[in-house]
Amino acid sequence: MRKIWTFIFVFLQTICFAQVTILPGDASVNSSLLKPGIYTMAYTINYNGEWVPLGEYITEVAFVNKQLKVNTSLSFAKTNTQWTDNFVADANKFLPVSSYSDRDERTLSLSFSNKVTGSYLDKRLQKKKQIDQNLPLNCFDVSVYPYIIQMLPLDVGYRAILPVFDYEAADNAKTHRIEITEVKSDVHISDLTGEHKVWKVAVSEGNTGHSFDYFIDKTNRRIWKISIVSAKGDKIAMTNIETEFNPFKAPFDKKATLAMVQSGNAVIKGTAFARDNENEGGLKGMAVLNINKKQYAAKGTEIVLIPYTAYFKQWIALNEKQRKIKNAKPIPLAKEAFDCFKRASVYDDNGSFEFTNLMPGDYLLVTAFGYKHTSRQTEETGRASVFVNGAYQGDQVYTSVFSYSSNATANIQKVVSIEKEGEKVEVKLKKTL
Predict the structure, then answer these.
(1) How much of the chain, in percent, has pLDDT values that exceed 70?
(2) Which terminus of the chain has fewer Cβ atoms in its 10 Å neighbourhood, N or C?
(3) How far apart are the first and last CA of the chain?
(4) What would the mean pLDDT of 343-358 be, rounded to a whole number?
(5) How many other CB atoms are there within 10 angstroms of residue 169's CB atom?
(6) pTM of this structure
(7) DSSP 91-159
(8) Does residue 155 have a pLDDT over 50?
């Protein structure tokens, strides 16, 4: 009986997790899972335990005239160079049609039919080699396999082999195996959009010796991240930076927004200062009891004026939500939106500033400056036992009030409204603790 159960267990494992070979035209390749679009990934390398930016990897995927077309570019910021790759495959079986690859040291151009024809240019030697050889049957071009993986029926325990043709393989075989060795569930945390459930797909390249982990979204099959360990042991990461991410619903009108800060004759003028409140305990925060002097923003302190339109209100609200997402980065504004900010500097020792040429509307004033924060705190300094007629009555507690001083920063935001043309509005940008 024990042998029977062992046989059943092994048999079920074989059925569930058998390694399949995916060939061109395989019915399990679902093209609807591959979404056209342009995707940008940060390209980094691990150097002495730190991730160092190298450049940017951009992929453009499109289905055109029953063909899959993919254009990629890898830009290196430090050397100001770029690698480009373009390939075309038919959108039925994903058999290769053509490919073009340009690197610092060479250019490779291939066309596929029953043969592989094209050219290989060695830029260092300035030598060009013509290519004319038979195309191995039942294999993908090496360029297309990452996109085939996105279209496979991924699941826990899934394993597969994809035969690929690689003209630049180190040996002469040219046909090699791309092996999906493991698929597991995982989670990817995006700086902008939070948590995403993904398939972590471990891949081994027989043609290069590199190992990959693809983090593929379970819902939309977006590749969120690719972790690479090269044959030499280098660790590289490519992470989707969601350049297409646009949570804004309110439209931005640059012309109208610039007019608000350039084409009017209203004025906002005021002072920026902090006023300390030393009260502690039950009186803490009661500014009415504050007797400390104003501490004015220093000369040169920058005051920023933001036209408080629906677009900018939404930007502020979105970033309030971002603060609640662990490790999330702020949602940036487009440069054209930043162009509509207006800036003024404090021009005297009394924290004074002015904004001119403003139209009626709402404006958000923002500033930050340092000041000296003082506080008073009552502390126990001693105790004494109290006796009356020789009988112990309890302890007498002695206290003292101590004053403490520390550096602090006043971060101030205030919405100011201009009601009519030519109005002069006076404001106090103040912070009271």
Answers:
(1) 83
(2) N
(3) 79
(4) 96
(5) 17
(6) 0.63
(7) TTT--EEEEEEE-SSEEEEEEESSEEEEEEEETTTTEEEEEEEEPPSS-EETTTHHHHHHTS---TT--
(8) yes
- Tell me how many degrees the CA angle 225-228-231 measures, rounded to the nearest 5: 170
Query: What's the CA angle centered on 60, arms 105 and 208, to 5 degrees?
Result: 45
Entry field: residues in the chain: 433
Q: Read off the pLDDT of residues 163-180 as tens digits, 9 standing for 90 and up.
A: 999 999 877 678 899 999
Could you read off the pLDDT of 276-303 as tens digits, one per residue? 765 554 445 454 444 567 899 999 999 9
Mean pLDDT of the chain: 86
How far is it, in rounded angstroms, from Cα 194 to Cα 333?
19
CB 22 within 8 Å of CB 159:
no
In whole angstroms, what is the distance from residue 55 CA to residue 78 CA? 8
Residues 37-92: pLDDT tens digits?
999 999 999 999 999 999 999 999 999 999 999 999 999 988 889 999 999 999 99
Which residues fall within 8 angstroms of residue 25, CB to CB, at 6 or more apart? 92, 93, 94, 95
Question: How many other CB atoms are there within 10 angstroms of residue 360's CB atom?
Answer: 14
Separation CA 143–CA 94 (nearest Å): 11
Burial class (CB in 10 A: 0-12, 13-18, 19+), 198: buried
- The letter for the amino acid at 233 is G
Specify the 3-state DSSP secondary structure of 261.
Answer: helix
- Return the DSSP state at 312: H
Which amino acid is it at 162?
A: L
CA distance 139 to 112: 12
Q: What is the pLDDT of residue 247?
A: 78
Quote the DSSP letter at residue 263: S
157 CB neighbour count, 10 Å cutoff: 11
Q: Measured between alpha carbons, how far is 255 from 261 in angstroms, rounded to an integer?
A: 11
- 320: β partners: none
How is residue 429 written in tokens? 């940008």
The position carrying tokens 């020789």 is: 390
Please answer whether residues 60 and 73 qualify as being in contact, where contact means their C-beta atoms are separated by less than 8 angstroms: no
**Nearest to residue 327, comparing CAs of 191, 221, 423?**
191
Question: Is pLDDT above 90 for 137?
Answer: no
Matching residue, tokens 């050889």: 133
- Average of per-residue pLDDT across 1-12: 45
Given a contact cutoff of 8 angstroms between Cβ atoms, the answer to whether 362 and 419 are in contact is no
CA-nearest of 148, 156, 144 to 218 is 156
